[in-house]
Design a protein that fits this description.
Pfam families: DUF6193. This protein has helices at residues 18-21, 25-36, 90-102, 107-113, 131-141, 149-154, 158-161, 212-221, 235-240, and strands spanning 41-43, 50-55, 58-64, 71-77, 80-87, 118-119, 164-168, 171-175, 188-193, 196-200, 206-210. It has 242 residues and is of the alpha+beta class. The chain is elongated, with a radius of gyration of 20 Å.
């Protein structure tokens, strides 16, 4: 399901949309979320009736439908549209933002919360499950835990903890999906010894970093744009869902 949200660039007519003009729609939404869920960051765009926000559990986008007072809200996970929800008020939109971003909901949860939600038929391919958490726990705790400081530091960074750790020979990597074939667009890390790490980015450039924490942070800061928690599925599923 491609994004269906319109990108309105023309100023809204105050007589037609008084509730979205003063104050502007996105500012109203940001104010509500600041009081209810301060951890949720809302982008205030130049577009007059469009806003988005993201968190560890996914992202939400909302837009006013041209010619209507309907707010079409899009829930996404791993960069994939899971469903569309019609909302009548900014308050309803804020409730969707809070519920979806605060909790690892699945498509069945979404239908229960929002009966009118239009969920993609293959949404379960992209659901969050506990496979990633189990994998990380096995790495950290198995036989007393890993002795690789980089993985221990990576496990403490939420965006990396939400990806599937992979390894090939001495190269450590991360996948944005849980099943093979894995994604290959995240930085890879090669421990060099004595606390040094060689990180290779997707463009082929290499960077030698001293210290496991700095290396993990460098990887986190160079993930593909829009990286979220890994989807349940393969790299092909991720591409087909774009």
């Amino acid at each position: 399901m491609e994004t269906l949200l319109p990108r309105l660039n023309q100023p809204l007519d105050a007589a037609t949309y008084p509730e979205f003009v003063s104050p502007p729609f996105a500012e109203q939404l940001a104010t509500i979320l600041a009081s209810k869920a301060p951890e949720v960051f809302v982008t205030l765009p130049y577009r007059p009736a469009y806003a988005d926000a993201s968190g560890n559990n996914g992202s939400v986008h909302v837009a006013l439908i041209p010619g209507e007072h309907n707010l079409l809200t899009e829930i996404r996970r791993g960069g994939i549209t899971i469903g569309l929800i019609d909302c009548d008020t900014i308050q309803e939109v804020s409730d969707v933002f809070i519920e979806w971003l605060r909790s690892p909901l699945n498509s069945r949860d979404a239908v229960k919360l929002w009966p009118k939600a239009r969920i993609r038929a293959d949404a379960e391919l992209f659901e969050v499950d506990d496979k990633i958490d189990r994998y990380w726990n096995s790495i950290i705790h198995l036989d007393g835990g890993t002795d690789e400081p980089f993985l221990l530091e990576a496990a403490r960074i939420p965006i990396l903890r939400g990806l599937l750790p992979t390894s090939s020979m001495s190269i450590l990597g991360f996948s944005r999906c849980t099943e093979y074939p894995y994604t290959d667009d995240c930085p890879t890390t090669q421990p060099l010894g004595d606390g040094k790490y060689r990180i290779t980015l997707i463009d082929g450039s290499t960077h030698d970093i001293i210290g496991a924490l700095d290396a993990a942070r460098f990887v986190a800061n160079n993930l593909p744009e829009g990286t979220e928690r890994a989807i349940v599925g393969t790299a092909d599923d991720l591409k087909s869902g774009d």
